[in-house]
Amino acid sequence: MLLGIISDTHGLLRPGVAETFQNVDRILHAGDIDRPAILDALSEIAPVVAVRGNMDGGWAGQIPTTAAVPVGERAIYLLHDLGTLDLTPSIAGFDAVVYGHTHRPAIDRQDGVLYLNPGAAGPRRRHPPSVALLRVTETEMTPEIIVLAE
Question: How many domains, in total, are found in the chain?
Fold first, then answer.
């Protein structure tokens, strides 16, 4: 399965996102969406699982702050701010943690768990806009950070 990973759109969905995600099976949005139209546009590409970020206002009240996302025999924990992680992923049975908030793309592994931050896909701040692709098989999870055109 191929997942499109996105975060911190802050109301801007760059044209490169649709092209990058054209073959994904599902999209995970790690918060700071900013407006419902972003989720509507993403759902035209593939089914979307999203969590609420610290900048998502009243419109996002129905969006959860965390989500457990099954992917075949694997499980991904989705949240916005890694600093609010409220469990130990390896003990809770998660193979990966997907998060955003920092606007910095990151790939790390700790205690057998993949930690993936796709960076920020919205307005440029300190880092170029980016998303990630995550290929999930029975035996491995392979992430790739994709820098988007500005």
Answer: 1
